[in-house]
Amino acid sequence: MTTEALGSTSDVMESRTMPRMKYSSSATEKGADTKIVIKKTAIFAQNRSFCCIFALYFNFKDMSLEIERKFLVVNDSYRQMAQSVRSIEQAYISTDADATVRVRLVDGRGFITVKSRSHGAVRHEWEYEISSEDARQMLDSVCRSGHIAKYRYVVDAGSGLRWEVDEFHGALAPLVVAEIELPSENTPFLRLPFIGEEVTGDPRYFNSNLAAQV
User: Fold this and answer.
1) What is the pLDDT of residues 3-21, one digit of tens each?
2) Active-site annotation holds for 92
3) pTM of the entire structure?
4) Do 211 and 92 touch, CB atoms closer than 8 A?
């Protein structure tokens, strides 16, 4: 859940930035280079060792450990409590549990994310910002899953934490889930009135699996 949304709707989300590709000044050559990158990404996604290849290919220098718990939502009180709302479209180049590769547009900003297999609430995640044009092309050209559309409501959970509540649209409606990212597995957190049953680690609620239903 690295893509962040906190504060007013005009706030800039925090994200590490992907090193930009070197493009020719020629629009034609730039388009060709973009297609090559997309093609190579799609080819790599077919390999179970994609996480490692992807990291080397883009010269990524670090690995982020994601510790996240997920819950069903039992009422819509989160709407009044939200500090911000984001519109998200996402789909997957790879839904392999060992190397999930997601492309996402968040209020028009593009991101590509690689995630390792989950072990309870813990997994590794790499996320980098890409141009909205590249994200759009990847969503339309190389993503193999259905497209998920959702609104994300961000609610303060105190102690520097926040709830991210995803309200799914289309074929996945009326599903609503809440996630909270923690600094450690044992970190205590505030359970707000809209929080219901915990579904952390339940594959039925993995976004990569939900994408197969749309």
Assistant:
1) 544 333 333 333 333 333 3
2) yes
3) 0.73
4) yes
